[in-house]
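Let us work through a complete example step by step.
Step 1: write down the sequence.
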Amino acid sequence: MKVIEQNPYRILGLLAGVTAREQTKQVNRLKQYIGADQIPDDDFSFPVLGVLRRTLETVDEASSKLNLDADKMSAAHFWFFKGYEITDEPAFEALKKGDVAAAKAIWERLIIEDRADGKRYWKQVNMRNYSAFHNWFILEVLTKKSSWSIMANILFLESDAADNFKQLITDATYKISKKDMQLLFLNQLALEADTNPAYNINQLLQIIKSLSFVAKEDFLKLLAQKIIARITAQIENSKRQRVADKANAANVGEALYRNTKDDFEQLKTLIDAQEYAFSDISDKLANEILQCGIEYFIHYKETSTDPSSVSMELFNKATMLAVGNLTKDRCRDQIAELQKWINDKPERVKQDRIKNEYQGIVQLIEDYGGRSTTIANAKALINQSKRYLNPAKNTLGASDSLYLRLSTSVATLALHYIIEEINRVMENDMRQFQYTFSAYEKNQIVMRIKQKLGEAWGAADLLGSLDMEQDFRRDRYNPNKESLRGLCNQLSVPTYSSSSSSGSSSDKKSGCYIATMAYGSYDHPQVMILRQFRDQVLAQSLFGRWFIDRYYHYSPKLVEYFHNKKTVNRLVRFTLNQLIKIIKQ
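Step 2: predict the structure and record it as tokens.
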């Protein structure tokens, strides 16, 4: 222990408590020896306790540290003094001769009692053994480097004999209480523990907590304040490093946790977790470690480096430190968000595979989200979305959840636009219909409604060509389309379909349309001619509409039966080609 080995009294070869005259005399004597390059052979530096090299400078420095009473008291706590000459004198003589065991035995007999149960107990401190408690502590620390020997000196300083110690060391005018003497001793021990691994602060705390003495609570509070100040400094240093280099934020957080771990564990033994001082510094530490994890994650999440495991480790450490509800909630929220990001990794991988298509759909929905809610915009959205949806479908597959979600997001907005415009038309035109008496105007209103219903049905039918999530198709698209069908039927608006509203993508491919089966594509030019004939000719007459309904009633089963029969398909295609020639004429 440096405070003992380099004690000013030891350097001067004096016992604590000597007079100023004795000190001056010894200083002059040492200088003469040093000047003559000789070693004094009869002082109280006790070479057996360790090598001591004196110079004129170290002697002058040691002497200057013993001028004030406060300095004398500080040094005396960690050096020998003569309190009871009958026993102390023989012990000192033994030390001069190098017989450490003999000196220790003299003092030990005065302070420790061996009982029949085989255990050793401290004796009561009195005027005959109080210096033995102190001197034994000094010798034990120097030879065994034993922390538990500190207990002996605390027992001595808690006794009434401590006042005799003060009177011996300092002038009568110097005032210091028993508590202050104890704090002076303990604070120097704590400083030694900070730099000397042989005197662990945790061992010191165990000893202190096992005893009862006047300065105990004050010292523990001071020690707690000191630890809090160290942790606070570490937190501030972490903040500066984190802000300066976010790419290294995780290492900064780990270093903060590692560098404060011992101090934090000590703090938990000093103050109650419910005290504000503890919860405040604990939450500050937790928040800084959490923030390091957050900023590391943000920095790397869009790169090829996966930051999730490193950030999650910091989040968990922060959670263990958190005390206040706000900090605990913040930790839980960050862990939940990060876990969701981890769970969504397969989805992000798929997004990367269709990055352009994904961004295109997102941008398209954003663009159309600000447009007027019209059927025309619904159809435009559907048609434009296919340039992104079709490649995404080819890459991921028709049943992929991400593809279906993208397609359904388009369907959701388009369906909303169709419904909104129909609701406006029905509300406005029906109000006009009720309040007009002109047969001509009523006829015009009905024609407008029928036209808009026709447009809506066409848009809804086109919407059905999109793949959708099953729940959306069942609960939103199909019911709304059937409602629209009901309105159309009331006004005799044709409701033929070019797509299935309830089937899957594969169902629509096998189709329920003979022309599509024959030509292999819904968008084949010949099929488009036939659809135009259906809309512009057949749909305009009662017989034509009856034919269309029958056609769409029976054609799915026929297509399903003849789908893979090439001979039948060629015959159908030939027949349709002849029909198309007639239509063109």
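Step 3: interpret the result. Residues 119 and 546 are 112 Å apart (CA to CA).
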